[in-house]
Design brief:
The protein is α+β, with helices and mostly antiparallel strands and 299 residues long. It has 11 helices and 7 strands. It folds into 3 domains: 108 residues, Crotonobetainyl-coa:carnitine coa-transferase, domain 1 (Rossmann fold); 77 residues, formyl-coa transferase, domain 3 (2-Layer Sandwich); 39 residues, no CATH class. α2 packs across α4 and α3 packs across α4. This is AMACR racemase.
């Protein structure tokens, strides 16, 4: 697209050799699929990561569009820009960043690649330590239809989980007896189903059992921990969103408390600020190069 506009990296780097030119695409600038359409699930599948996600005896499933689009795409591209900016302080030169979502999410999964031959990945998908195979790394439904998340991997944490559930570890199979995991899952599930989420929080809060509530978007801002850290903010329309993270000690981000703009809402204002005439802006709109947003538009 940028080449079609006469704004490819070769042209712009001739004008400004210090320019950092980032290109973020699903499949990257080269390769068989480079010009092919795709979405997060496609990039995730080509990276190998999708094959690791899913329950036992079920199809692989994508965890919304967070891994490839945002983590492997946006975040890794931003890291590439920061890296290129740092390198420029030494060389004085800019460069082009080829950020592929496939490669970004594959690189994020380096832990899976480096640990794939270890004991805790020896079983089929959905039967391992971190993919839902164990009773102590799982989610459980509570009596009020909510859920608790359990991540009691280490023995000292597992012991506190067992204690909180009202069980005696001496009368249970070993934590690492994989043949007993399905039975223990059912046992844990039946116990968690006997109390509400709030009641379980009263049991496990202030312990190291690694048990926490699965919070909905409606509940997350009102949770005491998040309230104390002011992890979520509310804009002037009452809409809640996460506060920018991570928090810097000396120069923390100051988020805007105004609502998000509609697509194209400030197009004319910005173009006028950059010296475009009303006539030029009208022509761009007529040619469908730009878009004007309207207040109250259903976007």
């Amino acid at each position: 697209v940028m080449e079609n506009l006469g704004l490819g990296p070769e042209v712009l780097l001739q004008e400004n050799p210090r320019l950092i030119y980032a290109r973020l695409t699903g499949f990257g600038q080269k390769g068989k699929y480079a010009k092919q359409a795709g979405h997060d699930i496609n990039f995730l599948s080509l990276s190998g990561v999708l094959s690791k996600l899913g329950r036992k005896d079920e199809n692989p499933y994508a965890p919304i569009n967070l891994l490839a689009d945002f983590a492997g795409g946006g975040v890794m591209c931003a890291m590439g820009i920061v890296t290129a900016l740092y390198e420029r302080t030494r060389s004085g030169k800019g460069q082009v960043i080829d950020a592929s979502m496939v490669e970004g999410v594959a690189y994020l999964s380096s832990f899976l690649w480096k640990s794939q031959h270890l004991e805790f990945w020896k079983r089929p998908r959905g039967e391992n330590l971190l993919d839902g195979g164990t009773p102590f790394y799982e989610t459980y439904k509570t009596s009020d239809g909510k859920y608790m998340a359990v991540g009691a991997i280490e023995p000292q944490f597992y012991e506190q989980l067992i204690k909180g559930l009202g069980l005696d570890s001496d009368q249970l199979p070993s934590q690492w007896s994989s043949s007993d995991w399905p039975k223990m899952k059912k046992k844990f599930a039946s116990i968690f189903a006997q109390k509400t989420q709030a009641e379980w929080c009263s049991v496990f809060d202030h312990t190291d059992a690694c048990v926490t509530p699965v919070l909905s978007f409606d509940d997350v801002a009102s949770h005491q921990h998040n309230k104390e850290r002011r992890s979520f903010i509310k804009n002037d329309h009452g809409e809640i969103s996460p506060r920018p993270a991570p928090c810097l000690s000396r120069t923390p981000a100051v988020p805007s408390l105004k609502r998000d703009p509609f697509i194209g809402e400030h197009t004319e204002e910005i173009l006028l600020e950059y010296g475009f005439t009303k006539k030029e802006i009208t022509k761009l709109y007529q040619d469908k190069v730009i878009e004007f947003g309207k207040l109250g538009a259903n976007l």
